[in-house]
């Protein structure tokens, strides 16, 4: 039965988002799941055939989606973020990219059997490790800040650079083949990409200027930004094919570094769009492959080429390019291993396969199988090994979810000391040095600064913390902090304490602020007074013999339940509307009065 276009679009979106959910639920690399799902739905079972269904719109749709994904990624490239990492990043995107190009071309010629011309073009393209694959992996792996930032910057910047170098390689080949008659093509190439860069910069500055002057209303900001991104990409691509990626990357980096607050406010919306596009496009690409292409992947020379790219080309290019930098050996090893290829490699390689064939290079027929083999095997290899390798090299953050405590007070001080006993990561944040004195004396981790400041995300690493609890002396400030960080942590993991008992917090709209901490809705004042009157934290293990039901029957009315520490390491906090249960191996954490300490 032939599906309608609408039905196929619906299936592609369902498969893409279903793959994201499966990867989250079972802690699997999302890119791997999407690749397998696309292969099953396309060449294996023939459920969907995106390329034939969308026809002439297939490649333009994918190109626009890639442009938006790359733009969204480049918006996170704030120069402040790479403070202290400038030299390694510059080395990777220059010397590292050049070495990868040369070594990859040699491998493509001598191992994959491609002619020098085709190998030269494809070698340039294979330097890409773009945001379509790197960012989802970093989102799941919890790397330490240094290696995570290096991989992110390299991936986003090298993505358009790889396409640019591939075009340059092709133009050089045409000039060498046809002689002086086509020498002007090189000049056209450089002028075209210079214009694309200037167009991207101008679009970024123009959007920033309109936002700062208030010429665009809030409800139109996101639609207008995406419209300009598509226009920037299309115009640049019309000027010079494959230059659109460079234009939108420069546009995003320009906006990221001119201090436009509105762009930061739109960040989570853009991330949601990017995830949706990434999920659907990857399924479309893999579903459009044919069984012949998949069978070609199993050729010995193609498999040997992939092995060389994995175990020799990438590690050697990283090792040589980072000589005399401050990267540790473990950081070099991790960066040297992680280089998954993604959507840009697949889409751009199909373009070069067709034009190389038109120029008479018959061996270009295996470009698509070689590209997909490299994409699939690198995605699988790096997707499944990034997290364990990072742990082995001590470059990952502890798996135990941490707690960020906003506001220094008797409760947060005592709570932090107890979390320290449980080996749960935490940090107390306050803008007042005076309020932090007791925290400093207790030698607890803290950050002196404004949690709402833009500088905060560059001065402290928020990655280890999965939960946020606000407890300052201002209800409205607590609600503001919670509302700001809900997109980051999720509504289920953000909590607030009211200053006093009353209706101030209760009357807030449910979309504002976090969840109210503690099962009886104790205020910050009440919890601090309890600590000062001798209440202490207690952990009650739940066992097969002593069940959670028995615990609830035995506990006194004065006991204040705070959270359940699961045997998996996760924390589940009590709120007035929560329905928490505990199983054998879990611990219930609560505050008990002085008279109950002995029991």
Automatic annotation (TrEMBL):
Keyword list (alphabetical) reads: Antiport, Cell membrane, Ion transport, Membrane, Transmembrane, Transmembrane helix, Transport
Its annotated compartments are: Cell membrane
Top-level taxonomic group? Bacteria
Domain named RCK N-terminal is located at: 403-484
Q: Does the keyword Transport apply?
A: yes
Matching entries from Gene3D superfamilies are given as:
1.20.1530.20, NAD(P)-binding Rossmann-like Domain (3.40.50.720)
The UniProt entry, under Pfam families, shows: Na_H_Exchanger (PF00999), TrkA_N (PF02254)
Residues of the Cation/H+ exchanger transmembrane domain:
17-392
Q: Where are the transmembrane segments?
A: 6-24, 31-48, 60-77, 89-108, 114-135, 156-177, 189-207, 219-236, 242-260, 272-290, 302-322, 334-354, 366-386
**Main localisation:** membrane
Q: Does the keyword Amino-acid biosynthesis apply?
A: no
- Specify the protein's topology with respect to the membrane: Multi-pass membrane protein
The record's section on PANTHER family has: NA(+)/H(+) ANTIPORTER 1, NA(+)_H(+) ANTIPORTER 2-RELATED
Protein name (database record): NhaP-type Na+/H+ or K+/H+ antiporter/Trk K+ transport system NAD-binding subunit
Question: What is the originating organism of this protein?
Answer: Alkalibacillus salilacus
The beginning of the lineage is:
Bacteria, Bacillati, Bacillota, Bacilli, Bacillales
């Amino acid at each position: 039965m032939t599906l309608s276009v609408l039905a196929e679009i619906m299936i592609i979106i369902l498969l893409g988002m279903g793959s994201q959910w499966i990867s989250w639920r079972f802690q699997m690399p999302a890119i791997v799941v999407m690749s397998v799902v696309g292969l099953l739905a396309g060449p294996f079972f023939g459920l969907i055939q995106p390329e034939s269904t969308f026809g002439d719109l297939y490649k333009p749709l994918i190109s626009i989606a890639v442009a938006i994904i790359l733009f969204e990624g480049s918006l996170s490239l704030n120069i402040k973020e790479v403070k202290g990492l400038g030299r390694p990043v510059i080395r990777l995107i220059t010397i590292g990219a050049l070495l990868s190009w040369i070594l990859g071309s040699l491998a493509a010629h001598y191992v994959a059997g491609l002619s020098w011309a085709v190998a030269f073009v494809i070698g340039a393209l294979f330097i890409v490790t773009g945001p379509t694959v790197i960012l989802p992996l970093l989102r799941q792996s919890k790397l330490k800040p240094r290696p995570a930032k290096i991989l992110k910057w390299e991936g986003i910047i090298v993505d358009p650079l790889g396409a640019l170098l591939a075009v340059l390689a092709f133009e050089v080949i045409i000039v060498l083949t046809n002689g002086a008659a086509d020498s002007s093509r090189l000049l056209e190439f450089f002028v075209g990409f210079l214009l694309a860069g200037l167009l991207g910069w101008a679009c970024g500055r123009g959007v920033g200027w309109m936002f700062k002057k208030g010429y665009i209303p809030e409800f139109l900001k996101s639609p207008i930004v995406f419209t300009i991104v598509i226009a920037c990409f299309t115009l640049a691509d019309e000027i010079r094919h494959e230059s659109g990626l460079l234009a939108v990357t420069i546009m995003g980096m320009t906006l990221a570094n001119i201090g436009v607050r509105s762009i930061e406010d739109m960040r989570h919306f853009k991330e949601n769009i990017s995830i949706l596009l990434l999920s659907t496009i990857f399924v479309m690409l893999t579903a459009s492959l044919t069984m012949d292409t998949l069978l070609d992947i199993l050729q010995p020379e193609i498999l040997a080429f992939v092995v060389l790219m994995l175990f020799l080309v990438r590690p050697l290019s990283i090792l040589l390019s980072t000589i005399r930098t401050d990267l540790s050996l473990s950081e070099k090893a991790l960066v040297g291993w992680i280089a998954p290829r993604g959507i840009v490699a697949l889409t751009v390689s199909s373009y070069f396969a067709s034009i190389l064939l038109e120029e008479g290079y018959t061996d270009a027929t295996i470009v698509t199988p070689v590209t997909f083999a490299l994409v699939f095997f690198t995605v699988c290899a790096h997707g499944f090994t990034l997290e364990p390798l990072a742990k082995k090299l001590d470059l990952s953050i502890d798996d135990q979810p941490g707690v960020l405590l906003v506001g220094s007070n008797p409760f947060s001080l005592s709570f932090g000391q107890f979390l320290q006993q449980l080996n749960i990561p935490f940090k107390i944040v306050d803008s007042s040095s005076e309020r932090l004195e007791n925290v400093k004396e207790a030698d607890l981790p803290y950050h002196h600064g404004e949690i709402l400041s833009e500088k905060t995300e560059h001065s402290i690493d928020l990655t280890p913390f999965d939960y946020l609890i606000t407890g300052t002396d201002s209800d409205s400030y607590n609600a503001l902090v919670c509302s700001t960080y809900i997109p980051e942590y999720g509504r289920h993991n953000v909590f607030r304490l009211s200053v006093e008992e009353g209706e101030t917090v209760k009357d807030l709209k449910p979309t504002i602020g976090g969840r109210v901490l503690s099962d009886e809705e104790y205020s910050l004042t009440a919890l601090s007074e309890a600590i000062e009157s001798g209440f202490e934290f207690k952990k009650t293990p739940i066992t097969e013999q002593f069940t959670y039901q028995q615990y609830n029957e035995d506990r006194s009315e004065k006991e204040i339940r705070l959270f359940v520490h699961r045997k998996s390491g996760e924390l589940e906090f009590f709120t007035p509307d929560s329905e928490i249960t505990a199983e054998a191996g879990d611990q219930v954490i609560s505050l008990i009065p002085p008279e109950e300490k002995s029991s």
